[in-house]
Specification:
Jelly Rolls; 15 helices; alpha+beta; globular
Length: 455
């Protein structure tokens, strides 16, 4: 262990001498405070906080990931290129201990930098209302919708498989398939029909209503409020871009006289295409966690109102604190750092520094848009589906899927990142993928010929 630590300390000193490491640290140290007080968002306190934390966490994650890639590759390739490695491997130290020491040094330094700038971002976010002299109303709104960690419950997705099959058969018999869906495969047509049917289930014509039923809504003890988050879409845009809606929120399973919980009725106007939240006392939730939400499309609207199955409707309630959630988000970035450090070391065992950096950056950015890549292949012709299904898809899935768990996607909307979700990501990324890559790195470096003996 002493030998590994000695290599780690030497690696940290080696990285700190890199000008690019100093540049990244200075950039973050200067930009984060400037962003904190220079970003306005939508002009509200909540908007300022969301903009700052979103860009601050994204910038910190990006620069630390790039620094980890460069440092992990440089520390080994430079030793080999400058022949400094000869003075190490001739000593009683195994090559596996050398790789382990390099990994510990890179991860430790990146982690210290992450802790420092995470504390900086958190401090700016917490003290921003005092510096901006925000109103009491804005502070209350920020506490409800930003300085918290809320769990989300979405309505159950309705099964539209049979309806899609009937619609497809109807179009096929009438000969309308080719006319309506030109040059689309059967898979693409069914996907489009499924989206249409799901949207129909979440649409209210003028004078009608939609009812959502939520189960397992369990606010934490002491929580006074829950939030109904929704977003309007319409078939015809009103002149003022506003929808006047009626809402009924509570337990509707029994007659009104027998209901033990409160039922809230309200009417309000909201803009279309933007997420809004309705704050309701938590006593609207039944003891078994049931909650019904009904929307009435009032005749004044004169348009069909739609709620997207993806983000049109959900229930939010406090599940943890902002501080605890922020720690878990920082640990999520740490998981990325560990994976990229191992990837960089693996690449440096058999590639030159420029090529290794290029390969790792490709892996990093592929992981950042992995969902887009996977979805894009779904629109390819059947001739290349086999190649994608059995070769490309397993390769992409083995790569890190960073875009599935973006740090900002939890803090900005005050969405909770649970310890279970974090442990699941860490177990896959660190305990499985990183260990596989580290084993390959040890195997490759262990069999590599560092120097040739000439007699």
């Amino acid at each position: 262990m002493g030998r590994i630590w000695a290599v780690a300390v030497n690696t940290i000193r080696q990285i700190l001498r890199l000008k690019i490491a100093t540049a990244f640290i200075v950039i973050l140290f200067v930009l984060l405070p400037v962003m904190g007080f220079g970003m306005t968002g939508d002009g509200t306190l909540k908007g300022r906080l969301q903009s700052f934390v979103s860009y601050g966490l994204s910038l910190t994650s990006l620069l630390l990931c790039l620094l980890t890639i460069i440092a992990s590759i440089y520390t080994l390739t430079s030793d080999i290129k400058n022949k400094q490695i000869y003075t190490v491997i001739t000593k009683p130290i195994k090559r596996s201990q050398l790789i382990a020491g390099k990994l510990v040094g890179v991860v430790l330094l990146s982690s210290v930098i992450l802790v420092f700038f995470s504390c900086l971002i958190y401090s700016i976010a917490v003290y921003m209302p005092k510096f901006l002299n925000s109103s009491e109303q804005e502070i209350v709104k920020a506490k409800d919708e930003f300085y918290t960690a809320r769990a989300s419950v979405k309505p159950r997705q309705q099964d539209v498989t049979k309806e899609v099959e009937r619609e497809y058969e109807k179009l096929a018999k009438s000969g309308m398939l080719e006319e309506v869906f030109k040059n689309d495969s059967k898979q693409q047509i069914i996907a489009q029909l499924r989206r249409q049917k799901k949207l129909e289930k979440r649409s209210a014509s003028v004078g009608s209503q939609i009812l959502w039923e939520f189960y397992n809504v369990k606010p934490t003890v002491g929580s006074e409020d829950i939030f109904i988050k929704f977003k309007y879409d319409v078939s015809v845009t009103p002149a003022d871009n506003q929808i006047f809606g009626g809402w009924m929120i509570g337990d509707n399973r029994k007659p009104v006289k027998e209901i033990d919980t409160e039922v809230y009725n309200l009417r309000q106007k909201n803009s279309i295409g933007t997420a809004h939240e309705i704050k309701i006392p938590a006593d609207a939730v039944a003891e078994d966690g049931y909650l019904a939400v009904a929307f009435f499309n009032l005749p004044l609207n004169n348009t069909v109102v739609m709620f997207s199955p993806k983000d049109g409707m959900e229930i939010l309630y406090k599940a943890d604190s902002f501080f605890a959630n922020f720690i878990r988000v920082a640990l999520l970035i740490e998981v990325r750092i560990i994976f990229l450090a191992v990837t960089g070391l693996l690449a440096s065992t058999f590639l030159s520094m420029p090529v290794a950096i290029l390969v790792c950056i490709v892996v990093f950015f592929t992981g950042s848009i992995s969902q887009f890549i996977i979805e894009s292949f779904g629109y390819l012709g059947e001739s290349v589906i086999g190649f994608y299904q059995y070769i490309l898809k397993p390769l992409i899935q083995f790569m890190p899927q960073f875009d599935k768990m973006e740090p900002a996607s939890f803090i900005v909307p005050a969405k909770i990142l649970s310890w279970f979700e974090l442990a699941k990501v860490a177990s896959v990324m660190v305990c499985i993928k990183s260990l596989v890559l580290l084993s390959i790195a040890l195997l490759v470096f262990g069999s590599r010929e560092i120097a040739r003996i000439i007699v």
